[in-house]
Amino acid sequence: MLDGKISLLLLLLLLAAANAAPSSLVGNLRFREAPQFYNSNGCPPPINPSTEYSSSCPSSLVDVAMTLDVAYLRGSMAAINSILQHSSCPQSIYFHFLASSFTFFLNSTISSIFPSLPFIIHPFDDSLVAGRISTSIRAALDRPLNYARSYLPRLLPTCVNRVVYLDSDLILVDDINTLAATPIPFPAALAAPEYCNANFTAYFTPTFWANPSLSVSFEGRRACYFNTGVMVMDLERWREEGYTERIEEWMDLQKRMRIYELGSLPPFLLVFAGRIAAVDHRWNQHGLGGDNFRGLCRDLHPGTVSLLHWSGKGKPWSRLDAGRPCPLDALWAPYDLLQPAFPIDVDS
Fold first, then answer.
1. pLDDT tens for residues 214-235?
2. pTM of the model
3. Residues of the signal sequence (predicted)?
């Protein structure tokens, strides 16, 4: 009997440890509750936070997908805050989060910060891609969760036909409803800002370009670089064309012969470059995190701004905490929901 009680206690301790916050990563971080934002006149009815997707999905909703982990949690909360603050229909946005660990902690944290937020956390199994990942120039790019966006058509309910995918290191300063309504003409399955002045060939190795059976993949395509941190995805068309399987095939080939260098981006380019619907550049002012080696400060690209994206090595929260912010990090700070380590009593 005693052995049975000890075994039960050990099991409970293991379960608690699996769901606890990883203190080595979050330390004593505490977030404040976000303001409540309300729909404007003419919006669809607000979603009940307890609503779960079933066999039918309301077509009037905006579905947003993001990966979620502890290391980037502060960035994710700021991103959500910015989306809600600038949306004309914030109560009609449904969030789909992909997480591979600490889902209980993440779920309770989001619920405490955004008590009225309709969301669901979809578990992502790292083993789906762990054996397909090849090392790249920065370890952070090799996390299995970076590849989860390729599996959205499988992980989200089949009734979700369109989703806006967003990285965790960005903020919106415009209405996400406008981005979500981006036309995706047939046969494209996704829309994103394209950058045709980028050095596209640099994303692939000389081995790739020297092999005619590989380089022919881009024949007849005006292949341009696009950043996968901001995408509007037609999931129905994606499923029909089996694009997840096509991405996996390129990743499997990469394990046998090195044909690219930079994490999860090149497989997307191999499948989609030159085959996407273009989005105005204002929806992804990317590269604000600097390059992937030194994270140097960068300026905005010319033109209007609807979304600021700190892709690259440097993250605004890290630079602010270190006392070495870049000028544009001041634009991220107002959306930060982290509580000060030492609250100041303004009445004293």
1. 999 999 999 999 999 999 999 9
2. 0.89
3. 1-20
